[in-house]
Amino acid sequence: MSGKFITFEGSEGSGKSTQSKLLYQYLRRQGYKVIYLREPGSTKIGEKIRRILLDPRNKSILPVCETLLYMAARAQMVEEVIVPALKKGKIVICDRFLDSTLAYQGYGLGISIKAIKSIGDFATQGIRPDLTIFLDLAVKAGLRQCGKTKDRIEERSLRYHQRVREGYLKLAKAYPGRIKVIKVDDHKNKTQIKIRELVKDVI
Ligand code: TMP
Asked: Of all atoms in ligand 1, which is nearest to the CA of residue 71?
């Protein structure tokens, strides 16, 4: 597949949606064929699964069920959107991917990392990002950026969100070639410049 696959990761309020959209617009202006996706979602089915996952009323979802729902949305997006786009040589920018499940359900909820990797291989057809940008921000500072109405995941404890961030940092250590850590700067343009530098090396 001739395209390039770039993912953004980060804990709550890290600004990854803003930064990934800025990158998308920048690459389009540069004349690249690029598509923008978010997880969970970006397909009709995936957006429905997203609503189930984030609805605070769904208190009874068990960790294994939650993990499989994220994977189900991912499987739909990979086959319906990512594979065709990469085959056409496009740049695919995705706001979250498999590392999110490792961080949030693996390190955060205690689901086996080995199991997530193996279900992840199945759900993604083995597709891995060429570059993953992890936007790192202190957990408390990030949570302050979230709105007053919190979704089911945002509602979780500070300790949970700290485990998620620590998980991301472990992943970045384990895959230093693919996962690049960028400390979030107060000035969003400065963060964006660092992101563009990393992307330049991949595309
Ligand atoms: P978003 O807020 O970045 O759009 O992501 C939706 C929420 O879902 C966010 O709280 C992180 C969470 N999430 C997981 O817990 N596991 C996953 O695999 C993904 C993709 C997201």
From this structure: 18
